[in-house]
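Technical annex, item 7. During the second reporting period the consortium partners agreed on a shared format for inverse folding records so that results from different sites could be compared directly. Each record opens with the tokenized structure and is followed by the designed sequence. A conforming record, contributed by the partner at site C, is shown below for reference.
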């Protein structure tokens, strides 16, 4: 009789354990991932300092140390980079957040001495200075005044992407011999650090003829 009682008690305990296990709530809640500071904007060659992040889970607690970050920021390139932050809990629930880091071209602004090698209608070598200003509306656009040594009123818009400068086809006002200026397809220009290195472009004149120009920039101030 005693033996039967022990077996019955064992069965009751096992059934109770199974009942409690089946009633345990399944973890379907993803961790809470929070980025500090939101999106970030820096200037060329300035360091990117991660503002930070936290992650917590209702079952696993603090998971901040388990957050992984994909993507990397190059402060030598004018660009927008999206960093992706991901964290998972023990049950496999995951959360993701993103941060956009913008490296802008502001530090390219200033004055430069330029030596221009021209072949074509006005062939020769010319020396002059230009003034570069940052666009007030875009992180990656600059305005170059006295472009090509064509006069201080001649302002060309240029776009900086990574370490390259592109010049879209345009007809700036103020040219004595009006024409269309456009960057050469094989790379209009290059930057290094916070300096413009060169610009390569063509000028097609409305009167007649054209020039192919290579401008070398130096003495950035």
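Designed sequence (site C submission):
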């Amino acid at each position: 009789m005693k033996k039967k009682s022990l077996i019955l008690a064992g069965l009751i305990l096992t059934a109770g354990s199974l009942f409690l296990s089946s009633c345990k709530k399944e973890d379907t809640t993803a961790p809470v991932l929070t980025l500090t500071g939101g999106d970030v904007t820096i200037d060329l060659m300035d360091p990117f300092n991660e503002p930070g992040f936290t992650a917590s889970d209702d079952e696993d607690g603090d998971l901040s140390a388990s957050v992984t970050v994909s993507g990397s920021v190059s402060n030598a390139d004018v660009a927008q980079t999206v960093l992706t932050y991901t964290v998972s809990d023990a049950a496999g629930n995951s959360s993701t957040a993103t941060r956009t880091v913008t490296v802008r071209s502001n530090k390219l602004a200033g004055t430069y001495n330029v030596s221009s090698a021209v072949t074509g209608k006005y062939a020769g070598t010319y020396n002059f200075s230009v003034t570069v200003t940052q666009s007030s509306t875009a992180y990656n656009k600059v305005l170059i005044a006295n472009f090509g040594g064509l006069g201080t009123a001649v302002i060309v818009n240029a776009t900086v992407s990574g370490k390259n400068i592109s010049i879209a086809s345009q007809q700036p006002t103020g040219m004595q011999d009006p024409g269309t200026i456009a960057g050469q397809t094989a790379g209009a220009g290059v930057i290094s650090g916070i300096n413009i290195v060169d610009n390569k472009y063509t000028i097609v004149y409305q009167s007649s003829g054209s020039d192919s120009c290579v401008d070398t920039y130096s003495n950035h101030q």
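The domain at 106-218 is CATH 2.40.128 (Lipocalin). The radius of gyration is 31 Å. All partners now use this format for quarterly exchanges.
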